[in-house]
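pasting input
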Amino acid sequence: MTPAVHQDEELWVCHLGTIPYRDALAIQQDLAARRRAGDLPDTLLLLEHHPVYTRGRRSLPGELTLGEDFYRARGIEVVPTDRGGRVTYHGPGQLVGYPIMGVTDVIAHLRTIEDAIVAALAEEGVAARSRPQDGPDYTGVWVADRKIASLGVHVSRGVSTHGFAVNVDNDLEPFSWVVACGLADVEMTSIAAELGGGTSIECARTRIAASFCRVHGRRQRPVAARELGIDAARVAEFAAV
Amino acid sequence: MAEIVMPRLSDTMEEGTVLRWCKREGEHVAHGEELVEIETDKAAMVYESDQEGVLREIVAHEGDTLPVGATIAHVGETAEAVEAPSATPTAVAEAPPRQADVAVRGTVRAGEDRVKASPLARRIANESGVDLHTIAGTGPSGRVVKADVEAARAAAAPAPVSAEPSLITAAAEPARAEAAPTLAERVATAKGETTVVALTRTQQTVARRMAESKATIPDFALQAEIDMERCVGLREELKRLSPEQAPTYNDMIVKACALALRQHPRANGGYRDGQLQLHSRVNVGVAVATADALVVPTVFDADLKALGEIARETRALAERARAGAITPPELSGGTFTVSNLGMYGVRSFSAIVNPPQAAILSVGSLQPRAVVHESEIAARHTLAVTLVCDHRILYGADAARFLQRIGELLEEPAALTL
């Protein structure tokens, strides 16, 4: 793949549709390696996942309160990951974002992601906030005491993977089947729940992409998956060699 | 001995949690090598070592949360002499970090008052005869860093070499004195000059997948010796017809595997997350060694292709792989893999299963060997093959029947030409 000529002021944004979690892991590893090599500028992947629970390294067995059989019976797989944070749920209707970016200050990276989501939600008419003063357990984006977006990143050799998930109009039930984010009593919410419906993932996607680029002071450059060498249908096997 | 401390990964970071050590006690760590994964807030970061040496002791274990600047490990010089035998190293592993620190120091420098300094600062101080005790450290926890030593050197009048020894044993001192004052990328060790080369993306992928395969797959291997005399005859005939394009023995093996896979669907399947996946196509991957990597281009629908077609394809794919022109779609979609090291004289070997495939066939060298054929000793061309299988989906008897079928097809190769 020939390296594209890019400008530092751009942030590439790529929509991947709904893809399996493991495929997204493979794509992120590939893009992160290329970002490290300087073949790719900072890139934001926006997508959805089929139902899946993912666990951070510090996740405890007790977080999956109903047992693996329960989740499997409902078609939700459980995948361990190397990102920070604890267990969370991804599913259709939830906007997932993976910024593959050069990161020097990892906590500032988290705060900036929160700021981007708060600003985008404000445009949607949702009064959200971040809670850095409440400690790392409260990292994420909140509406009053309800959690609307979760974060968890991994940084290796200066480049980030994983990122954030914003509940747009997804099913929130599966969150109640685990100790989400390690917080026993957290109530999850979504844009649809806050506004009583009338929102779409496409709308949220557009706002989040724009907001994300704005907080980073970059110009958004939409790129197709094909331009990044991602053929979604083949991705599952792309990780095979 | 140098300290590894909880690094400041962010301006606002106050504490971090050790998630996973990438190195074990006693392992060598190179400067810039991944050493430990640390979590702070909702971010997990891989921290690369700023020291070169042997990871002598892990102070902060997985799951421990420590403030920035607290000691999490000790790294020793590779040329350093072994500490005086004592129970201290094992005792240290159980004791809380503070006590461990003191105990280790006590062993190595009996009675000596050791100054906290970075190895670089220590080296410069040593070479320029500056006494570390006289320097106020401005690094984390009051460590003396290079800048402090440079400042002291600039301020001090030329002084005689300090009689205060540093933490290096007498044996290592001459080597240290010759070392350059700056930390170089290429470090001279007992193994000569070591150059650190980063893995390419493909190499990283191979490394990751091989490790995952070995770590997670309950594999077993079946061996068989196949009489290839008839294949040798077949190849002679095909060479007469088409000297340049005659199918190789590997092509015959690929076709034989493909036909056998069609008859044994589980061997053509895969294991993914507790489920058996059965594929309707038979796509055989052929391992090709390129200059600096291993790739496995796929021959799609190998059971439906004529032997000549397979031969043309494998030749083209191998050329493209070596030229670096192979594309991801050509490397994907395999349901089975054939790996052949016979051309290097390897008699037999066990390849590593290519997940999520059910099995891989390792092919050894084709040679005339002494065998018993029709009750007499004869020289026949034979081939040792090893089928390595994932026992989560392919069990012994099934695998054996599948392997037997491959042997049958190669021993009576007329079927391969259809």
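fyi The longest helix of chain B spans residues 201-216.
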